[in-house]
Amino acid sequence: MSDDARPDLPAVSGALPARPSLRVLIVEDSEEDAWTYQHLLRRAAPQVQCTVLGMGADAVEYLRRETPDCVLLDFNLPDMTGLEVLAEARPSCAVVMLTGVGDEQVAVLAMNAGAQDYVVKSTLSAAGLLRDLERAVEKYRLQRELTVSRERMQAALGSVDDSLLSLDHDLNLLYLNPAAQRLLSLPEGTLSHAELTGHAGWMFADTFLKVLRRALKTGERQETELKGPQGQWLDSRVYPSPGGLTVTLRDVTQRRSEEERLRLLESVTVNAREAVVISEAEPVVGEGPRVVYVNEAFTRMTGYAPEEIIGRTPRILQGPGSDRATLDRVRANLLSWTPVDEVVQNYHKDGTPIWVHLSIVPVANTRGWFTHWVSVQRDVTQEMQRERRDRMRRELLEQAAAGRPVDDLLNGLCRLIWLDLNSLTVAAWLREDSLLTLRASVNSDADALRASAQRGVTQVDLQHDDGVCATVVRTRQPVIVDDIRRESLVMHRGAREALLAGGLHAMWGLPILSSHADQPPLGVFTVFSETPRTPTQTELAALQDLTGLASLLLERALAQREMQRLAMYDSLTGLPNRALYLEYLTQALSRSTHDGERLAVGLLDLDRFKVINDTLGHSAGDELLVQVARRLRRTFRPSDVVARMGGDEFTLILPFGNDPGVFRSGVQNRLTSCFQAPFHVQGQELFVGASLGLAFTPDHGTDSDTLLSAADLAMYRAKRTGSGVAVFDPAATALQPGTVSLETDLYRALERDELELHYQPLFRAGTRELIGAEALCRWRHARLGMVSPAEFIPLAENTGLILPIGAWVLNEACRQLAEWHRTHPQLQMSVNLSPRQFWNPQLVETVRAAIAAHNIPPGRLVLEITESVLMNVPDAEATLRRLRALGVALSLDDFGTGYSSLSYLNRFPLTALKIDRSFLRSVTGNPDGTAEKIIQAVMLLSHALNLHVTTEGIETPEQAAFIESVGGDTLQGFLLGRPVPAGQFRLPD
Fold first, then answer.
1. CATH topology of 160-255 equal to that of 385-566?
2. What is the CATH number of domain 272-379?
């Protein structure tokens, strides 16, 4: 019978939906039974696809390759049982087991082995078999989905860091994830409550047990914290569920540590001595980030309460004194999200400036995004003020060393006191003889002190006036006035009214004492307060410290001022010296150019002075020069300038407006009157004449060198003619046979070997050991004999012959030094360089060639220069540095006779200086003498600058002893040795 004719097949209606195709593997060793199963299935569903295998092994191999929808598996097969096929093949599809009889044991075994259903062969029908297979396929699908769902759930729970447990109503363990298993050290599987307590008694003790039972009773979620066996803290949450409870455990040890750390940090921040500001990260530009937090230290430092700053920008702390460059650096760091470490000037709420050390760092969130700036601010105002005070002290010391005016030093000292005393008003008074004068003041807003000069407040006559400042000077002690309104207080006239008008009510005066106990104070500091009070101990100590500094600075400055005065004035006559005369002449020429005033430049030389000097001695000559200077000063007008150039030579600046001839006659009469009466010198009457040469502007020149040269030639003409006064005459000068002849002879002096060097010995102070010599040029004229250097050196300068003569002197001195070094290698040689030589670009090469030609150590050659080189040669500094680079020593000759010697000591690369002989004339050995003090100051200053000091012109034992007592290095003078030719120079044995 065909499958379609079987009576148990149901009628097929075209309206029924088509079933999906079912792929079935039939594993049956009986061909008849297998054919029956196929036809039953096809009758029920024609689209069913069947595959028939008779052996278990073939089924296993097939299932490893293919995956049908369902397997209809016979329990008994020739080679193995159906259970063995299931065990070996593990099919990924539904399995229905075929049994011959309804054996329940076989059914249980089949179901446990993985089958979804079983059927009994004898009870099969087409519809029933198809239904069983479809039900098995659906059951397999559901089981598979459940398995996948369970696996996913277990994977999810296993990946959770939190520990998770499931308990029933009796608190028996139903499930725990791997995290809980690790945390509680529990075995896999279910555990009774008793077993659970035995394994994790620390957790299921009374406290947590009450939480679990409360959750069961109330049906509400419970939360608590537990401390684990390793000391970790666990956040526990209990969730009621239909089957019991779900418990989650989370390790919050780190969180609690972070919270504790944050609590401690907050406590530190709140109680920190430094100000802490937290602001939003942005915006950096524009108004800037807004503040979200400040601590109490910030309020103490700035005066701003939290509610006054939070929500606003920190830039409200900036002010007019805030450095723009520093703020730009801060902003650049903020824009690049880099830390800030700067010192800035901010302002207190009341407007007081404060210095703040600013440390700003960006703070990022867990994702690395910067969200805030944290700024730690430390008030460094005191440190900055201390640094500023120290800097001001150093600057004042440097200014004093550089010879700055006394008023500049007093202003600096006032500023220093003002800074130390928190902005009190300060004034400085300087004593000059019996007059005390206000010279500086700081923080006097109304400037009442200086504005009261017309009332005499700024000057105190110490001999007649009373008051605080006069009392301070007389007693040499501080005077503290707590309230100047007291009627019993005696004050200088007008001072009380001036101070009260300026809002000042207290006055403290302190003396600036001299280092010499018998000398009155150098000056007075007065400090004023707007409120009546006395100074605190701190203020008084600061004032006493600063008055000590003031004493040091003022004594040095006054000594330098005296030195500069002596450097600008002739120490013997008190007249302006050459340097000051040239400055006066430059100023007068400048004025005459603008206003048309005419000037006469005069050069005056005494007649027969050399005879008087040689016969009566130098002291008589000096006394005569003093009297001549006094008469000249009385003879000429106050507007005229009379100066001493050196020796017996005087210079004049005489403005005039009338006819030159009339003016000359007037000068002639004045000169005759001046020298008409005899001079009284050492008990003798001496009649001395003078020769004066005059040069007029603009007829004879408009610059100082031209005019002086013209006056010099006119003076020689006056001396030659005996006329007393002569005006420069270019035509007559050109015909002077003596000058022309001497100049011609000087041109030939080198060719004729008429020049020679004499050597004056130099001795080490103290031991009087010979250390070298100074080379001095001499001219042994074939007809005239020895020509004075005072005559031929200026002629060589004016004609330019000084260049070849200077080169010869340098070469000859180096040759002689090389010869001496064969037996006395310790000796040095000093050679004078003329200012004209510095105009020669080959000077440095000339010196280098002389050193190399004679193979002498450069350090044994000392080049002596005059201050005119430093003043008049534009590139003198560069030339001196090139010479110094050769290794030679550089000495400043005739120190103290120029105008600005002190500044040159600091500027030029000098190694030594030579004190001019004019300073020694007044030296008697008295340590309190003016000349002695000046020389001692020069020694201290020079040695402080590492300069070697040579003293020339030593003619008496007292002079030598004094120079040695004050630390002089080298001695030179007639007392120890005169200049002699090399053959007569005595070398030590």
1. yes
2. 3.30.450.20
Which residues neighbour 120 within 8 Å (Cβ) at sequence distance 6 or greater?
Answer: 99, 100, 101, 102
Candidates 3.30.70.120, 3.30.70.2860, 3.30.70.270, 3.30.200.100; CATH matching 599-609+626-729: 3.30.70.270
Sheet containing 649-656, strands listed edge to edge, beginning at the edge strand earlier in sequence: 641-646, 649-656, 598-606, 690-696, 725-727
CATH, domain range 3-155: 3.40.50.2300
Whether 52 contacts 28, CB under 8 Å: yes
| Rounded CA separation 366/585 (Å) | 82
Domain 385-566 of CATH type 3.30.450.40: yes
Q: Which of 863, 961, 947 is nearest to 907 (CA)?
A: 947
SS3 string, 804-848, reads: HHHHHHHHHHHHHHHHHHCCCCCCEEEEECCHHHHCCCCHHHHHH
The answer to whether the beta carbons of residues 458 and 452 sit under 8 Å apart is yes
Q: pLDDT per residue over 743-791, tens digit each?
A: 778 878 888 889 999 999 999 999 999 999 999 999 998 877 888 887 7
- pLDDT by residue (tens digit) across 876-903? 888 999 999 999 999 998 776 554 455 6
Beta-carbon contacts of residue 774 (< 8 Å; ≥ 6 apart): 759, 760, 762, 829, 830, 831, 832, 864, 972, 979
**CATH T-level assignment (fold) for domain 160-255:** Beta-Lactamase (3.30.450)
Q: What are phi and psi of 441, to 5 degrees?
A: -155, 150
Spatial distance between the Cα atoms of 811 and 829, rounded to a whole number of angstroms = 12
Asked if 662 contacts 611 with a C-beta cutoff of 8 angstroms, the reply is no
Cβ neighbours around 909 below 10 Å, total:
12
Architecture of domain 745-984: Alpha-Beta Barrel (3.20)
Domain coordinates in residue numbering, the chain: 3-155, 160-255, 272-379, 385-566, 599-609+626-729, 745-984
Omega within 30 of 0 (cis) for the link into 698: yes
* DSSP character at residue 529: E
Asked if the bond preceding 283 is cis, omega within 30° of 0, the reply is yes
Residues, the chain? 989
* Token pair listed for 629: 């200077």
937-954 residue pLDDT tens = 888 888 988 999 999 989
Instruction: State how far the Cα of 341 lies from the Cα of 783, in Å rounded to an integer.
Output: 84
**In the Cβ-directed half-sphere of 174, how many Cα atoms lie within 13 Å?**
12
**Amino acid identity for residue 812 in this structure:** E
The three-state DSSP-derived secondary structure of 239-292 is: EEECCEEEEEEEECHHHHHHHHHHHHHHHHHHHCCCEEEEEECCCCCCCCCCEE
pTM over 0.90: no
